[in-house]
Amino acid sequence: MKDFDELAEGLNDLPECYVMEDRGLERQIERQINRRITKISLRTLFAVAIAAAVLLLIINPVMKLCSFNPRPLFTSAEAAYENEFTKYMRVYYETAQPYVTVYDSSLKDRGFGRYVIEMSVLDTSSPIYVGLPPNVKMNVNWGRIAVEDPQNLTTVTANRYGYGLMSEEDKAALKEEMEELPDSSVIHLSLSIRTAKPVSEVIDAPIQVNWVEIYNEEGKVRGGLTIRKSIMGEDERDRVGMTDEELKQEYLGNLEYLLSQPQLLNALGLRMGSKGRYYVYPTTVGPVKELLDQTREQAVLTTKNYCISGKKQEILDYLNTIDYTSVMVDDVRLSILGKRK
Q: What parts of the sequence cross the membrane (predicted)?
């Protein structure tokens, strides 16, 4: 601006005859003005380019380094249903709650530590359909995760177990209501038994056991194991028929895998334990490490809380053989064809 002011003062000092008569001088002045405007524009563009470079080359990578960055979990050549993030979320949900698994996932990088992760989440108590659009979205902003789950597929039922002791009258009323269902009905139950039993003994019973919560009297949190998996990786197999030691190694392996991504685990938080305890950043990793150490000391994994399913008469017969303290009905279908009550 100082240059323009000096130029304007110089023009004002010129004799009028020169301005009127010397058109060459006028063109020369005009060219000088244009050159000065061009210099200023180039300086401005250069400053903007430097600022953009600083943002993209310095600030953007620093922000990614300072918070959870999911991109390394999506860099493998594997398909969306076998990338590391999908595998991690399967283990995460399996450990935290029953009936939830992830089919596949994809990542969109919005820059500056912001990402959108889309997942296809399955409710394994229902018929499973693959190939549908993603139904759960995770917005990752500077290491914090906000979940969009319009179907409530990943929400936790905090009072699934131990909501209250059932009286004998309550048990009789539940059985009477079940008796009214058609013989073809398929029932999913979450139940608690009075005394902990070895997991291998529970899953060997004449009923389909879908998920067990591993009993841990001292720990702040309790994790679980899916017994019959709906989606299995290349080296995985169902846990039905596994020995006590094999079941223990499966559970320990899951806990160790969760701890392999501490930033992600902290960002996700924990929803584990029979009372629906919820641990959020930065306290998430500690309870899982504690649980891992306590589990290593257990000779045999036991359970008091687990999920079963079967036809009406199978469920009624099974309930007559165990000492249970609470039951939650998760789902009732009028037949294996899938029509809900």
A: 40-63
Residues 62, 107 share a domain: no
Q: How far is CA 12 from the centre of its chain?
A: 72
d(CA 173, CA 179): 10
Check whether residue 309 and residue 207 sit in a common domain: yes
The 10s digit of each residue's pLDDT in 220-241 is 788 999 998 877 666 777 888 8
For the record, the structure tokens of 57 come out as: 């080359």
> Any alpha helices (H) in 190-277, and if so which ranges?
199-203, 244-259, 262-268
Burial class (CB in 10 A: 0-12, 13-18, 19+), 122: buried
CB burial readout 241-261, b (16+ within 10 A) else e: ebebeebbebbeebbeebeeb
Q: Which residue has the higher pLDDT, 341 or 260?
A: 260
Taking the C-alpha atoms of residue 259 and residue 335, their distance in angstroms, rounded to an integer, is 41
pLDDT in tens, 32-64: 777 777 777 777 777 666 765 555 555 555 445
Regarding whether 312 and 193 lie in a shared domain, the answer is yes
| Per-chain mean pLDDT for the chain | 82
What backbone phi and psi angles, to 5 degrees, belong to 154?
-105, 0
Comparing CA positions, the residue from 79, 69, 196, 198 lying closest to residue 145 is 69
Of all helices (H) and strands (E), which one includes residue 175?
A: helix 168-179
Owning domain of residue 41: 2-66
pLDDT, tens only, 265-275: 988 887 765 55
Helix (H, G, I), strand (E, B) or coil at 325: strand
